[in-house]
Amino acid sequence: MEANLQLEKKLNVAAWIITVAVLGLVGLMRRVKITMPEGVDLGFLPPFHATLNALTALVLLVALYFIKQKKVQQHRNAIYVAIVLSVLFLLSYVAYHFTTPETLFGDSNHDGVVSEVEKAAVSGVRPFYLVLLLSHIALAAGIFPFILFTFIRAYTNQIERHRKMARWVFPLWLYVAITGPICYFMLIPYY
User: Fold this and answer.
1) Which of 13, 22, 71, 147 has the most other CB atoms within 10 Å of its CB?
2) pLDDT value for 77
């Protein structure tokens, strides 16, 4: 038990370091642009991101099913897959946003500005999109360390603490995984 608590403390420190690094990168990616070599374009990544998010949502539901069936090892394996998918998403997402101009909802002429005319054309949908996007981004940033902490509780065999966290972390992670592809599909006309 003492060894688990010491391991938990070390893993918690690592989780905070990872969280600060990831949030720092995400904060920088809109301000810093890296020029890609001639002929290299990461514009193919948004559908990949949506696919990774959709697969994460599916795997999270499978993990929930397994734990409800008391199939702990299958649940654990599904969570490992969900974490790997999320890490792949995060790496790809950061790479894309460091190298590619931002796509704006409603920017039908692709000039990087949503004019008043363009806003008027999507006025009924744009507020819904922005609320969905902002909730997705805020929850993704906020839930990230807690996904790690929930995982750490299970990894260090603190099952009751894991369950208590998972009850509220799981639905938020699922929401983020589902809203990512929805935002992507709403943004498709503007890529």
Assistant:
1) 147
2) 98
CA–CA gap between residue 115 and residue 132 (Å, rounded): 21
DSSP 38: T
DSSP-based three-state secondary structure for 41: coil
Residue 106 Cα distances to 121, 137, 172, angstroms:
8, 19, 27
**C-alpha–C-alpha distance, residues 12 and 142, integer Å:** 16
Q: What are phi and psi of 163, to 5 degrees?
A: -60, -45
Fold of 2-190: Four Helix Bundle (Hemerythrin (Met), subunit A) (1.20.120)
Helix (H, G, I), strand (E, B) or coil at 100: coil
Residue-wise burial string across 165-175, b where 16 or more C-beta atoms lie within 10 A, e elsewhere: bbeebbeebbb
Instruction: Read off the pLDDT band of 191 (50, 70, 90).
Output: confident
